[in-house]
Amino acid sequence: MTAILTNLFDGVAYGMLLFVLACGLAVTLGLMNFVNLAHGAFAMAGGYVCAVLVNRMGWPFFAALPLAFVASAMIGALLERTLYQHLYARSHLDQVLFSIGLVFMTVAAVDYIMGSSRIFINLPDVLQGQFDIFGVGIGRYRLMIIVICGLLTVGLQLVLSKTRFGSRLRAAVDDPRAASGLGINVPQVFAFTFAFGCGLAGLGGALSAEILGLDPYFPLKFMIYFLIVVTVGGSSSITGPFLASLLLGIGDVAGKYYVPKLGPFVIYTIMIVILIWRPNGLFGRTATR
To answer: Exposed/middle/buried for 80, CB within 10 Å: 0-12, 13-18, 19+?
Structure first.
């Protein structure tokens, strides 16, 4: 029983990590209807910023996390103003080709600058190891991920549903022309949203470096996981990707533990079953733009 609970805890932590990594894509794809396959590149940027600050410059890990968010958000804002905004009205195929090309350029650049070795972030002593609660092993780092991701989920939901900016974003997505007529600066709203989504990816990249490792091929290796989370959860809300992340995280950890030979296929099986049941995802809806 304790082994089941330990695996359940690890699965929840992994699912929370998947959510932070993928929720930025859920924002840009679901709310802005932009297919950004380069989302993992922004996550990798945040991971490397955090790794350089902590491993080479000796920054405290908790001080480096906000910088990972800010750095990825600034890179996202710069690319959105110079490149991405010209593709909002283009077809999804154009967006896919552009963003996958950006991924390969990023992989080559990071491989040249940082090298191809897989790196991890040096964690402080307080986040290393685990403790037991009634025989259930609780990893300190995984517990921190659950706390941070839980607070982030609540904050995102409140921003999108309760704030003036959330209302403006929904209006800009549902009908950009009408929103512009009402005085909403749609390009500015989209630019801020895109940068924020990139910042979330950067934060996820920094948090995931210790568990997933970090190398120049990070965007390619985990691109399919980001897409599965958004596809299974549906791209019209944050709730769907959040529940999908938990389901897939628990399923993936349980599959690799109990059926190691078939473990890597469990997450794809879950995806296929859910999409047969609900083709638009758990909380999906037909795109309106």
So the answer is: buried
Quote the CA–CA distance of 266 and 284 in Å, as a whole number.
22
pLDDT tens digits along 32-65: 778 888 888 999 999 999 999 998 998 999 999 9
Other C-beta atoms lying within 10 Å of the C-beta of residue 96: 13
Separate counts of helices (H) and strands (E) for the chain: 11, 2
pLDDT digits (tens, 9 = 90+) for 208-253: 888 888 889 988 888 888 888 888 877 667 778 888 888 888 888 8
Distance from C-alpha of 196 to C-alpha of 163, rounded to nearest angstrom? 15
Per the model's pLDDT, the better-predicted residue between 271 and 170 turns out to be 271
CA 236 – CA 286 distance, rounded (Å): 9
CA distance 62 to 65: 5
Question: CB–CB of 41/103 below 8 Å?
Answer: yes
Give which of 152, 265, 155, 282 is closest to 230, Cα–Cα. 282
The amino acid present at 157, given as its one-letter code, is Q
